[in-house]
Amino acid sequence: MIATFSQLFVFVFLILQMSPQISLAATAELSVLSCRICHAQSGTSSEIPSLAHKSTQEILNRLKTFLAIKTESTIMHRYMTGYSAVEREDLADYISKFGLVAK
């Protein structure tokens, strides 16, 4: 059975919430699993940008922008409200170093 996007999101979210002892690096690694559903490294979609070859600051700026946008119909705002500032920084750093592939 193929999991839907929302099922996978809920699964990753529950893992992160039930495991407070998970390190920030492990949290970022798990979060990347949901990121790569839409943000293929190959950049095959013109609507959803690739995050490949972006700096930590570029990614973090985009994440902060999505956090601030509340009227745009995007799932990114909903994702960003679930992360603390430190988690967003760690996620941006992880993606800039390793891309969207879990170690």
Number of helices: 5
Structural class: mainly alpha
* Largest beta-sheet characterization: none
Termini Cα gap: 25 Å
Q: The CATH topology is what? A: Cytochrome Bc1 Complex, Chain D, domain 2
Number-wise, the strands total 0
Contiguous low-pLDDT stretches (5 residues minimum) are none
Mean pLDDT: 75
Q: Name the CATH architecture.
A: Orthogonal Bundle
Total of domains = 1
CA-based gyration radius: 13 Å
Strand content: under 5%
Q: Specify the CATH homologous superfamily.
A: Cytochrome c-like domain
Can you give a write-up of this model?
- The model has no long low-confidence stretch (mean pLDDT 75).
- The chain starts with a helix and ends in a 5-residue tail after the last helix.
- It has a single domain (5-98), classed as Cytochrome c-like domain (Cytochrome Bc1 Complex, Chain D, domain 2, Orthogonal Bundle), CATH 1.10.760.10.
- With 103 residues, the protein is an all-alpha fold.
- It has helices at residues 5-18, 24-38, 56-68, 75-81, 85-98.
- The longest helix has 15 residues, at 24-38.
- The protein is built from five helices and no strands.
- 61% of the residues lie in helices and 0% in strands.
